[in-house]
Specification:
The chain has about 300 residues and is an alpha/beta fold. The protein has a single domain (about 5-230), classed as TIM Barrel, CATH 3.20.20.70. The chain is about 50% helix and about 10% strand. The protein contains 14 helices and 8 strands. Strand 2 (about 45), helix 3 and strand 3 (about 80) form a beta-alpha-beta unit. The longest helix has 21 residues, at about 280-300. The radius of gyration is 18 Å and the shape is globular. It starts with a helix and ends with a helix.
Length: about 300
């Protein structure tokens, strides 16, 4: 199976479930993995931002990578989140982690130190030369503080042959259109924003790495498949079914919002590692009402 076949459609940037004492909740992790697979998503991204990767280190990170591989048992492609703002450390991590069972790496652009565009290019060029697996670059300026421009992403796409895709989460359609229009044919553009996935696919993106699909994998992956098939009228129904839910998931930060949904579904506890914290009671009550509304819509469709 080619990289395009593996990574067209919906990937989930999965949460990491915790117990009240802060340890990883392996039992819930197993339950969640089966829930996501039953939802028929195309692939799983482990230890991205949604997985609270900033507070998981060293051997524990390896435990998560290995656990998900063993739980999935080859049923879906897997992507390992390995990024950072120290290029040499990212490269060291490439060599230190056992990535058995993984098909690609998701590597976020450097954050906090705000490199210029040449620095961003040189960072990815160094990763390209050292990587053990194909790389999806990740541009999310709202979190990193620095946008990887269309020109820089296109340069990476042309010159870094082990970087086969971008998870583009700038929200800037002028930039998105430039990347899609001028990219090499084999280079993939993947949405990194749940709420604008439908228009991004209409413009030529090839899928989504999703947060909302943690809680609603079947509907959201169905929506993406309909978009990719050109059935936009049908896709719109699912898109608008979840617009309010998506807004609530991000209203007080992610993964705080999506874990509230998963807790209400009985799939994991509403627990985090600081500085991530649970949402307010007011928003939690709103989420419960939104879940009831969606459940009622589903009953009407039966």
């Amino acid at each position: 199976m080619s990289l395009r076949e593996k990574f067209t459609g919906t990937g989930i940037a999965i949460v990491t479930p915790f117990l009240e004492n802060g340890k990883i909740d392996w039992d819930s992790f197993k339950k969640l993995t089966e829930f996501w697979i039953r939802g028929k998503v195309e692939y799983i991204v482990v230890l991205g931002t949604t997985g609270e990767s900033a507070t998981i280190h060293g051997e524990e990170k390896q435990q998560v990578f290995s656990f998900v591989n063993e739980a999935v048992k080859g049923r879906l492609p897997l992507v390992a989140g390995i990024g950072g703002n120290d290029t040499s450390e990212v490269i060291n991590n490439f060599g230190e982690f056992d990535l058995k069972g993984y098909d690609a790496i998701l590597s976020v652009s450097p954050y906090y130190n705000k490199p210029n565009q040449e620095g961003l290019f040189q960072h990815y060029k160094a990763l390209d030369a050292a990587t053990p697996l194909p790389i999806i670059m990740y541009n999310v300026p709202s979190r990193t503080g620095m946008n990887v421009t269309a020109d820089t992403q296109l340069r990476i796409a042309r010159e870094c042959k082990n970087i086969f895709a971008t998870k583009e989460a700038s929200g800037n359609f002028e930039q998105i259109n430039q990347i899609i229009k001028y990219k090499p044919d084999e280079f993939m553009v993947i949405s990194g924003d749940d709420p604008i996935t439908l228009p991004m696919i209409a413009c030529g993106a090839e899928g989504l790495i999703s947060v909302v699909a943690n809680a609603y994998p079947k509907d959201y992956s169905d929506m993406v498949r309909l978009c990719l098939a050109g059935k936009l009228n049908e896709a719109q129904k699912l898109h608008y079914k979840y617009t309010d839910i998506i807004a609530s998931m991000f209203a007080e930060g992610s993964p705080s919002g999506v874990k509230a949904y998963l807790a209400e579904m009985g799939l994991c506890k509403n627990t985090f590692r600081l500085p991530v914290y649970k949402i307010t009671d007011k928003l939690y009550q709103k989420i419960k009402e939104l879940m009831k509304t969606v459940a009622q819509l589903e009953l009407q469709d039966l």
